Structures are given as C-alpha cells and as structure tokens.
Amino acid sequence: MRKFLLTTLLGILLLIVAACGADGGDSEEVAGDSSGDGGDGGDFTFASSGLYPPFNYSDNDKLVGFDIEIGTALAEEMGMNPDPVTNPWQTIIAALNSDKFDAIIGSMAITDERLEEVNFTEPYYESGAQVFVAEDNNDVTSIDDLNGAKIGVVVSSTFEENAKEYTDEVITYDSDVTALQDLLVKGRLDAVITDQLVGMYAINENNLAIKQVDEPIYLDQMGIAIKKEDEELLDKVNEALQTIKENGTYAEISEKYFGADISGE
C-alpha cells in the first residue's frame, strides 16, 4: 500500500513538473516575440555632461536644456523613449564605446580626432569659440592679448587645445559655469574660451559681470556622436533630425533658448 502511494505521488509530481516546463516554454517564446518587433520602441539613452547651460544642465534634479529637448524630440520621432543621462566630459566617448548609452547629445564639436573614435550625425548647430573676460578687465581687448595669459577652459574640450596655442597657463574645469565665475576672482584667470552662446547666456540670464572679446576665434559644427558600428542608429537619428528641422520642432526648441533658429539652415 505504501509503495502504491509513493508511486502515485511520484507520478503526480512528474505531471506537475512537466506542466511547469510547458508553461515556461510558452512564456519564453512570448518574450522572444516581443523583442523581435523590428527595432521599434525601447529607450534612446543619450548623454551629456549636464554642466553646460543652456544646452544641458540640472534644474531641480532634472536634466534640462537645448540638447536635452533636441534628444527628446529625436527619440519621439523615432518612436522611442527619451532617456537623458550624464557622464563626465573627459570620459564620455569611452563610455559611449563601452555601451553605457546610445549617443552623445552634448554640444560635441565634430573634429578629425573624434571621427577616428565615433561617427557623427549631420551637424545640428554651429557656434563660435569665444573669448570672455571680466567686465572690468581692460588688459585683454583682442585675441592677440591672450599670449601668455591665464586661460580657463573645460577639460578635454576643443577650447583646451585652442588655448594651448596662446599660452602654457591653461587651467581646466569640469564646467564652463565655474570657469566663467572664476573670471570674477581677482588674479585667478585672465580669460575664458568657451562657446559664444554659453557665455552670452551667462551674461543675459545669470547677470554675470563678464564681456566677450573680439569676434569668435573659429566656428565649431556640433554633431551627435554614435558608435562606429551602429550605422543603423546613425541613419535613424539623421533622418529624425532632418524631420524635426522640417516640421518646425527644432526651430521651436531653439527659439525657446536663444530667440533664434541656430540650425544654420
């Protein structure tokens, strides 16, 4: 009798295990079907330093700015969920190539050196490398006065390389905001080289007592950086970028931050 009961219980247990196995197989198949939807949907994770107002910065612990809104518009155009994140600027390309995010939308200038490591979309705006000094600084009145000066720049930026053409005293910062504020500390800096729009924003919106010197040193074209091997995403972002320029979304975002369309088109 005991043997019969054990045999019966063993049989019931085997039936339960078999049933669970069948259910598990069905669940796995459904999961596989949901991921094979042609690449639509999902998150579009894009990175910036988060320290570059008005392009990308934190406001009440939320990432905001021109770059963030452009990235959000691109994600929505591609049918994806926007997921903006931050990463230190000096390691941002390495982080992209380590699959920490899908793209860099952080006002990154397109350079030959960077093109060796990543691909860039078509430029999404153009701006100039501008010299700024304290409002009461009358010693630096032209680009020629930068020779031998103490110049502040963001680390690993194109501005850092440019500053080294004028002086050995290049002081690097994680944030343009901090560099510009240091112009007001006597004896700390003679000048800062940064994006013209960033400096003008600090003057107009933050009432920082600084002024621009001369015309821009040069113009940069800014692109969205994407991994070399991700050509499909590059094409999708380029297509979405063209669409938001044509349908007025880009211009609306640009007008909000700069009072003009900075696309150059």
TrEMBL record:
Subcellular location: Cell envelope
Record keywords, A-Z: Lipoprotein, Palmitate, Signal
Gene3D superfamilies (UniProt xref): Periplasmic binding protein-like II
Signal peptide coordinates: 1-21
One CC-aspect GO term: cell envelope
Pfam families, alphabetized: SBP_bac_3 (PF00497)
Major place of residence: other
SUPFAM superfamilies documented for this protein: Periplasmic binding protein-like II
Chain ranges of the Solute-binding protein family 3/N-terminal domain: 43-261
Superkingdom of this protein's organism: Bacteria
Cross-referenced InterPro entries: Iontro_rcpt_C (IPR001320), SBP_3_CS (IPR018313), Solute-binding_3/MltF_N (IPR001638)
Boundaries of every Ionotropic glutamate receptor C-terminal domain copy: 43-260
Gene Ontology MF terms: ligand-gated monoatomic ion channel activity
UniProt family annotation: Belongs to the bacterial solute-binding protein 3 family.
Protein name: Amino acid ABC transporter substrate-binding protein (PAAT family)
Protein source organism: Pseudogracilibacillus auburnensis
